[in-house]
Amino acid sequence: MTSGRSGLYAALLALATTAPLTAQALQGSPPVQAVRFVGNRTFDGPTLAAAIATNSGQCKVLALLCMIGIGKEPYYFDEPTLRADVIRLRLFYYEQGFREAKVTADTTATEDGVRVAFHIEEGRPVLVSDITVDGLDVPGATDITRNLPLRKDDRFVIQRYDADRDTITSRLKNRGYPRAEVLAGYDIRNAEPYAVSVRYNVMPGTRARFGPVDVVGNQSISGNVVRRMLSFRSGDLYDQADILASQRNLFELQVFRHVDIQPDLSAAPDSVVPVTVQVNEGAMRNVRVGAGVNQAECVTGEGRWQSQNFLGGARQLQVRGRVSNVLAKQMYGSFLCQEVGNDVFRDRGGLFTVDFVQPFFFGPANNVGAGLIAERRSVPNIFVRRAIGGYVSLTRRLGRSAFISLAYRPESTRLEGAVPVVLCTSFIGCTPNELDVLTKSNWLSPVTLSYVTDRGNDVFSPTRGHVFRTDLEYASSYTASKFAYVRWNNDASLYHYLGGASVLALHLRAGLAWSLKSGESGLNPQKRFFAGGANSVRGFGQYQLGPEVLTVKNAARDLLVDTLSNGWPGCTPFSINNGSCNISGAPSNLFQAQPKGGGAVLEGSIELRLPSPIWRDKLRTALFVDAGQVWRSPGEIELKGNKGIIATPGFGFRYESPVGPIRLDIAYNTQGPRNLDVWTQTVCEIQEGSTSCPPLGSQKTGYRNTGLLQPMGHKVAWSPFSRPADTLPGFLQRLRIHFSIGQAF
After folding, report:
1. Buried-exposed string 336-373: b where 16+ CB fall within 10 A, e elsewhere
2. What stretches of 429-489 show up as alpha helix (H) in DSSP?
3. Which residue among 14, 122, 180, 728 is least enclosed by CB atoms within 10 Å?
4. Cα separation of 63 and 498, whole Å?
5. How far apart, in whole angstroms, are the C-alpha atoms of residue 295 and residue 317?
6. Distance, CA of 265 to chain centre
């Protein structure tokens, strides 16, 4: 049996002495205009291009611009690098099972540079004829050799051959054999069939168990707390995977800056493996303050105090306060605060929470949480939510960066400043009693099941990985909730690194919700879905995408005949009160659109994040397309038509700051006109000296609104971009500018 590595090492030596791995631009050298591969059948051009150094230049901006010669950094031809690339390709094919591959290179001079062609003769691949594993006389031997990376009849790929050996070794160490070793070799037969026999000689060693555990380096955290978070106990069968899981458990306590778990494999007897856990503690208490700006909350501030070892045992206690709409009244209408809403929506908002976490609950992978919450949150021009309550939760870690949680969150909530028509989801109107039920204090007490996995490689601006979260809520009288509903929300983001400072980011959100009580006036507004805004479909303002209804800007009396002078016939008090007035021809400046939210949402984004031509170390650019829609209920989902998906393209800039990317996005709204229902209040006559509301037709001195809602029997063709000629042009009206801190997703 031969190791089969002599030729490989010779190729590596030749590669190391022929040329450096990267070529520098040489004075007077022509640029490489194109690199192509001829004769390659098994591997495509991009795969082979990644294995060599010679290239046709790097694109520093959008690929489309590079195709026309803008933003491309040239690569200059270097003969020694080209010779080394020939060896690199031979080595690549060698490791992929093509031992007879031949590679040559030629160049063609052009007016603007050099074109390089690599000619490849792949030859016969070496196939695996048999795989033998000797010495594996241990329990569960079949499982240890099951589904190995390299299999019979596969092409003989060196990486898979090495992976087989590593896999067998790792599986043995996870089954009680800490000193396991595996020797590997292969023998290639040059005759037909061109095949290889692979052999692994296994030396498992003595089966062992974990011995005593010694904890060193701890000061505030007791050794018993550290031992409790380990995934193994003294006397357990040795398992290398348990050591890695224990390190994760200890890091997730957020009290250690460094954790190292070392088994002593030299200890005697060899059937017992003592373990040393080395820890270095971080700060046990910390305070953080911060501030931010976004158009929906104006200026915000936040403070947080956290104890990492509250009452001992690595328990965590966090007190957090947040204030929003700071300076909203003074800065209302300015660019930084243009979406905070009017009147009561500009009042100060805030959040105060106290959170407690017990890190060990029937096992190191489980923790119990509890907390108190007090909140005043504004949903601009829709409602202001006041809530006070708490929660209890049970969370279990599932593998690396994945968690599942079950929580109960009872809250006493109250809606303030709510637009009455937003609260009425049916088309038959709301009585004063129904409005009173929706606006007074009510208990919302859902049970929530959540799953979260976060594989992003950065908190502020991930370039690789993915983040996924799904939440399923249920509330009814069984959970002590006034409103009964089911709500399911899913949110996923994917990040793909393109090289340099370029990243392709994808985002998808989908949700369904419905009321479980037929007697309720639809889904509670707090649990409806809203879309649009800086972190949603950016062609729309905050929460402006989805079901809408028109209301009269300055109350119903503006519809009366004797208040109009623009040629529209107007309405009589009787036609307003019974909804028969034909308002389909009314001027658009009488109305304003009011979003209502809905029971179904689907939205997605694709964003290409690129380096900027200037300030490359701090400034980034982005091209994006957002699309989405909100529907009144899951049964009304339409992907096309007036209620279908709406796409809004745009571009933006990100400045990398210590608190995250400062973001400016400009998006174009493509939504066309739609026919909307109109709701208004009924009117009554005002009599001199009387505060009552007598029947219509009596002696009057004017009209006033009654506060009772009335739907009109005709729809109005509505578009927010149909404005008088003296305002902005139609294209500019459709642009939406968003300013905030942090990536959109």
Report:
1. bbbbbbeeebbbebbbebebbbebbeeebbebebebeb
2. 432-439
3. 728
4. 11
5. 32
6. 43
Reading phi first (left if > 0) and then psi (alpha if -120 to 50, else beta), residue 716 is in beta
Helix (H, G, I), strand (E, B) or coil at 547: coil
Q: Give pLDDT, residue 432.
A: 65
How many other β-carbons are positioned within 10 Å of the β-carbon of residue 631? 20
CA distance 502 to 519: 53
Sequential DSSP letters for 620-663:
EEEEEEEEEEEESSGGG--SSSTTS-EEEEEEEEEEEETTEEEE
Q: How far apart are CA 339 and CA 333, in angstroms?
A: 8
Please tell me the distance from the alpha carbon of residue 699 to that of residue 628, in angstroms, as a whole number: 53
Tell me the H-state helices in 443-595.
573-578
712 Cβ neighbours under 8 A, 6+ residues apart: 579, 581, 583, 677, 678, 679, 680
Task: Find residue 245's DSSP bridge partners.
Answer: none
User: Which of left, alpha, beta for 341 (phi over 0: left; psi -120 to 50: alpha)?
Assistant: left
CA distances from 344 to 382, 383, 524 (A): 11, 9, 21
Quote the pLDDT of residue 696: 62
14 to each of 7, 19, 91, 564, how far by Cα in Å? 11, 9, 10, 92
| Of 399, 397, 354, residue with least CA distance to 253 | 397
Q: In degrees, to the nearest 5, what angle opens at C-alpha 488 toward C-alphas 665 and 598?
A: 65
CA 633 to chain centre: 25
Q: Torsion-angle region of residue 618: left (phi > 0), alpha (psi -120 to 50) or beta? A: alpha
Q: What is the pLDDT of residue 426?
A: 46
Phi, psi of 135 (to 5 degrees): 85, 5
Task: Reply yes or no: is the peptide bond before residue 269 cis, omega within 30 of 0.
Answer: yes
Nearest to 259 by CA among 274, 276, 284, 238: 276
Torsion of CA 560, 564, 570, 576, to 10 degrees: -20
Sorted by sequence, the CB contacts under 8 Å of residue 580 that are 6+ apart come out as: 574, 713
Report residue 324 as tokens. Answer: 């929003």
Amino acid at 114: V
Tell which residue, 529, 536, 407, has the closest CA to residue 472: 407
Question: d(Cα 99, Cα 291) in Å, to the nearest integer?
Answer: 62
Instruction: Please give the Cα distance from 682 to 704 (Å, whole number).
Output: 9
pLDDT, position 316: 94
User: What single-letter DSSP state applies at residue 126?
Assistant: P
User: Mind spelling out the 3-state secondary structure of 341-361?
Assistant: CCHHHHCCEEEEEEEEEECCC
Angstrom distance (rounded) from CA 529 to CA 600: 7
Q: Is 275 exposed, middle or buried (0-12, 13-18, 19+ CB in 10 A)?
A: buried
pLDDT of residue 647: 96
Q: CB count, 10 Å around CB of 104?
A: 13
Count how many residues are written for the chain: 745
Q: What is the largest CA-CA distance in the chain?
A: 115
Query: 444, 417 in Cβ contact below 8 A?
Result: no
For the chain, 745 residues long, the average pLDDT of each consecutive 10-residue run is 50 49 55 93 92 80 50 80 94 95 94 93 94 91 90 94 95 95 92 90 95 94 93 95 93 91 93 96 90 84 93 93 89 80 84 95 92 91 90 92 95 81 56 70 94 90 94 96 94 91 94 79 83 93 89 66 61 83 79 87 96 79 96 90 91 86 93 85 70 58 72 83 60 88 89
